[in-house]
Amino acid sequence: QVQLVESGGGLVQAGGSLRLSCAASGHTISSYAMSWFRQAPGKEREFVAVISGSGASTSYADSVKGRFTISRDNARNTVYLQMNSLKPEDTAVYYCAVMSSWGQGTQVTVSS
């Protein structure tokens, strides 16, 4: 089973940027699509972005399209989420996922 560890979360003002990382271990992930999800307080977990194994294909939730960019470095077994123009409604715990594995999440808080 693959282990995932997210990092890079924190507190940022509206309009700011953060870059999340998700490091995988225990399994080579280059053949698998990887995703980011988020869960805000009192809400269900929602899809944010996905990237194909090669990195050639990506897809985003409408709420983050044009502001967030997902990428990956298969040599480092790591996927990233660059978040720009952050809004208070982006506040959530962000999780990465691959196959049936989830990370523990990293908190992102955007102040207005």
Describe the protein in words.
The protein has 112 residues and is mainly beta. It is built from no helices and eleven strands. The strands form two sheets. Strands 2, 4, 5, 6, 9, 10 and 11 form a seven-stranded mixed β-sheet that branches. Strands 1-3-8-7 form a four-stranded antiparallel β-sheet, with no helix packed on it. Strand 7 (68-73) and strand 8 (78-83) form a beta hairpin. The protein is globular, with a radius of gyration of 13 Å. 30% of the residues are buried.
- Continuous helix count: 0
Structural class by SSE content: mainly beta
Cα(first) to Cα(last) distance is 39 Å
On the 0-100 scale, what is the average pLDDT?
A: 96
Query: Radius of gyration from the CA trace?
Result: 13 Å
Give the overall form: globular
Proportion of beta-strand residues: over 45%
Number of strand segments: 11
Low-confidence stretches: none
> Which percent range fits the helix content?
under 10%
Largest sheet: 7 strands, mixed
Comma- or semicolon-separated keywords:
single chain; 112 residues; mainly beta; 11 strands; 0% helix; globular
Task: Itemize the secondary structure elements and their pairings.
Blueprint: E1 3-7, E2 10-13, E3 18-25, E4 34-39, E5 46-51, E6 58-60, E7 68-73, E8 78-83, E9 92-98, E10 101-102, E11 106-111
Parallel strand pairs: 2-11
Antiparallel strand pairs: 1-3, 3-8, 4-5, 4-9, 5-6, 7-8, 9-10, 9-11
Kindly summarize this structure in a few lines.
This protein is mostly beta strands and about 110 residues long.
